Amino acid sequence: MTASSNLAIPRPALLGTIFVFNFIEFLTTGMTVLAASAIMGHVKASPEEYATVSAMYAAVAVLSISQMTVLLQRLGWRNYLLASVLVYLCGAWLCATSGAVAQFAGGRLLMAMGGGVFMTVSRMMVNLIPPSPQRLQGIAAFGAALSGGIAVGPWLAAKMVGHEAWGGMFLVLALLAATGAGLAARWMPQDAVTLDGTPTRMHLGDGILLGLGAALTLYALQHLTYNWHGERAPLIGHLALGIALLAGFGVLHARRDEPFLHLRILRSPRYRLGLLIYAVCYGVLGMVNTLLPQLVQKGLGVGLQQAGELQGISLLATVIVFVVMLELVKKNPHPTRFYVTGFLMLALLGWRFATLDPRAYARDTLLAWIGLFGGFLTLGMATTAIHSFKDLQMDNVVFSHAQQLKNMLGQACLALGVGMTNIGLQERTALHLSRLGEKALDAGAELARQAALLAGQDLFWIVMWIGVLGAVLLTMQRRFD
Predict the structure, then answer these.
(1) Domain ranges (residues) in the chain
(2) Exposed (0-12), middle (13-18) or buried (19+): which is 391, by Cβ within 10 Å?
(3) Average pLDDT over residues 105-116
(4) Which pLDDT score is estimated for 361?
(5) What integer pLDDT is reported at residue 6 of this predicted model?
(6) Rounded to two decimals, what is the model's pTM?
(7) CA-CA distance, 66 to 126, in Å (whole number)?
(8) Into which CATH architecture does domain 1-203+256-260 fall?
């Protein structure tokens, strides 16, 4: 895209569009995790059915993300965004008005089909700003949406559920998407500028392999949560088949002349390290998002509305950390201090909740400690975003594929973090129930509460060690120097 054509897009409109589409992504994550139990109750879904919906959402999002560049090149920025939002709006309306799990599932799949790309397309909009220090404005809008969505999501979900208006969460998302569509219709270019170079093709067979592989793998991971002590063999078979299909996709697609994902980007050591760090961040995001409700709501007996407000207020620290980081990056972008600080924040969070004494529980104390989680996510993800793509920025299509692959991995790791954490909670809760029962503790709600608290604390020790090891190992990395 030429400089002159960039001038046709007012900077505030472009930054607003970048912000809105990425904000939707992280707002959705924050709301649907906190309000999962309320949603299940309203649509009459069992935990297993809700897990299936979550797995299918992630699989459809993976497939949608994989085709983003192909469709952008053919439809252009404006038409692609408007079509994506239209599909998303239909899905959000179905979810908001659903009273049965089938309708809700259909809505979520439409939301994944249309909105699974929102984070990726938001990042690629930054490249509509010509290469210059001004691109930092686009990165700032993108990062502000990430940190703001993480903070606002739990708070908004708590408010909606507390007022018996859980469907309002999806109407808010629809309103934001419509706002993004309005900006796109007025200001986005009609052609595929910045993505009109290297040609790509859809490759239907490859897409089928990718979609089926992702669906089977994520389905098995989610359902192992509920069948760990039951019939595991069929699910392990599904998992093995899913992984085999994904491997087949990789081997086949790497040989394509015009692939929809340039897998050769994996040859970059810098990019591979970035993917590894992203995988850890997304896995921890799924893990902590699962553990916090377990510990705060079940273990400490805090109601959902109060828990959401508590989490939302404390995660405002995410915004503060991001603002401070922006100022520091301008002076010295070297990543080590950001990584060490972020992973030590995670270690402190894990230690605090692993050693929490419920008898000394204080709302104000927990506020500050939950904020460490937002600081970790900001420093971990934003630092990796700055440094991991430098080898791939010469070709916008290749850069787009790198963003797509990263966000596809993010969907999988988020699901993996949730699934493995639920398995761990089941194991530890059962163990503590047995031990507490042996001590003749009174049965009933108090026994369940104490077992839930202890199980959550056990897994927060793992969070602490992830933080410690991450801080140590990233002091030794040299790929980003």
Answers:
(1) 1-203+256-260, 267-481
(2) middle
(3) 96
(4) 60
(5) 42
(6) 0.91
(7) 19
(8) Up-down Bundle (1.20)
